[in-house]
Amino acid sequence: MTSRTSRDVLRRGLSVLGRAIREQPRIFAVAVSGSVLFGGLVIASAYVVGAVVGDVVVPAIARGSVGVAALALAAGALFGISVLRVVGIFGRRLGAGYMQFRLQAAYRRQVTRRYLELPLSWHQRNATGTLLSNANSDVEAAWYPIAPLPFAVGTVVMLVGAIASLFVTDWALALVGLAVFPALFALNVIYSRRMAPRQARAQRLRAEVSGIAHESFDGALVVKTMGREAQETARFAARAGELRDALISVGRLRGVFDPMLETLPSLGTLAVLVVGAFRLRQGAITVTDLVSVAFLFTVLAFPVRAIGWVLAELPRSVAGWDRVRRVLDATGEMPYGDVTLDPADPTPATLAFADVGFAYEPAEAHLPGAEVLGEVTFTVPAGRTVALVGPTGSGKSTIAALAVRLVDPHTGTVSLDGVDVRRLTAASLAGTAALVAQVPFVFDDTVRANIALDRPGVTDDDVWAALRLAEADGFVAALPEGLDTMVGERGTSLSGGQRQRLTLARALAGRPRLLVLDDATSAVDPRVEAAILAGLRAPAAGGPAASILVVAYRRATIALADEVIYLEQGRVIARGTHAELLATVPGYADLVTAYEQAEADGEQQPRPYDEVAPLTSGLEVEVDR
Ligand SMILES: Nc1ncnc2c1ncn2[C@@H]1O[C@H](COP(=O)(O)OP(=O)(O)OP(=O)(O)O)[C@@H](O)[C@H]1O
Ligand SMILES: [Mg+2]
């Protein structure tokens, strides 16, 4: 590492510390006051000890008797200083702790809030493990040096005070101090410079190890069923080994520098005794002076280390902060507009795609993004049901995501009730359109919480109504604790079809005016699927009046739609009723018939509910790695 980059780390590290101080100035002031009080008392205690030895002990030895009054005074002074020192330590520790943990909590909140604001395209580019380590170890690392910072600041004040007091005592002893203290400081700086690249590397590896672990646990199903335990273990072991080596190299450097940092003050004390003995003989100083200064060197050694702690943690802090900043400064945010749609409007919404084109961002920036959709134009008129049919990879999920504005089109517009979705407020969007995704996501919470999601005004009655529409009231009523049943992480205690119906009920409970079902009932048996859709289409049954865009495969389901849009490779190939398409579009007939054939052959789930959905990668369980 060149000295320029290490200077750069020092500069950036100090600016991170500056930010911390600006954010918590009062607590920092308390902590530094405690530390300065402590520092002043350390110097004072050295002189009191000197006075006790020079003015009480030495005369007592000479006389053969102890002056009780002088002894009591000395003891009282030392006791008083100790008590005040405790106050200083208490103030410093409490302040530093408050400051560190407050900053950690604040930034953890900021990072996680930012995750939720960032668009899907950003999440698709960033691994979940990295996000976890950004919010955990990176935030922690960024504020590590805060713990010793007040101590270090107090120590700098103390060192200046110590050298000044040395000059007052004796210039020769002061010169020893001027040689030792700056050397100690310099050694600390060299130490932290050496440490910088090692700490940065360790911090990066920590994130990578956590990323791999997260991925293997998340994909436990595949790892087990495909017998990939050994390979996964090896992949993890390799990176864990690198982390171990990085940490060992950190430890080795510590092993070299720590003893040097210990030794230097002892050498200083030795120098003080040698020089001091001469000066004593010359009559330039008293025994009191010599003992005070020697004691000062001994007690200063420890606090000076605090400066080293801060400097040594700076690189790690900068590395952590850079990674936190990357999240906080991430662009690609979806700006919302300010047009609102009436939330109480009971009529279904109209969805229109006009000439929509879309391409996913390439995995690597230099690759071109392949077009996934082109010139897609269609309308879901108010209150109507439109089915989206197409072979796998034809862009159905992409259209579903565009319809609820998880992503924005590259060309053309998507509009709700004639308003470009980009002009709507976030609340209007969420209140108007609901997506039931291809991969159901269930929170580790109760059935009720999963459906109501804390939305105001969603009562238990609404929850049950939504469950009825999703044909889920039967199984929920049969659960041991009904709505209060905990469903386990990602809904592991539920079957695939139950999970799908729970997420459908969640969408329905918000009374959306447009419902987008992306293959949302694939794990439910065909009769129930048809019953669900029939119920949704008939508001008389008590359901919300919604327009429906449904990605479907089964003939019975498709037949319920008012119109079918047939896609191939991101283009609308044909549109019409099911019967029309069946008669006129060979590709469509093949697809629908093949699917039916597969189901009839007993392939219960040709499209398992937890198959990889490319669109949701990075957000959901991605089992098929
Ligand atoms: N996050 C992504 N990054 C890059 N390409 C993607 C991403 N998600 C999807 N794609 C690509 O976009 C195309 C359309 O995907 P989409 O998920 O919309 O298809 P689909 O019709 O829903 O397929 P399926 O029936 O299998 O669910 C596919 O070629 C897919 O490989
Ligand atoms: Mg899909």
User: How far apart, in Å, are the first and last alpha carbons?
Assistant: 38 Å
Could you list the spans in which at least 5 consecutive residues all have pLDDT below 50?
Answer: 604-625
Give helix and strand order, one letter per element, not per position. Answer: HHHHHHHHHHEEEHEEHEHHHHEHEHEEHH
Overall SS class: alpha/beta
Bound molecules: adenosine-5'-triphosphate, magnesium ion
Strand line-up across the major sheet: 6-7-8-3-9-10
Shape: elongated
Beta strand count: 10
Task: Please tell me how large the radius of gyration is.
Answer: 35 Å
Q: How much helix, percentage-wise, in residues? A: 55-70%
Report the mean per-residue pLDDT as an integer. 83
How would you characterize the largest beta sheet? 6 strands, mixed
In terms of DSSP E residues, the strand content is 5-15%
- As an assembly, this protein is single chain
Number of helices: 20
Subcellular location: Cell membrane
Region (Disordered): 600-625
Protein name: ABC transporter ATP-binding protein
GO molecular function, one term: ATP binding
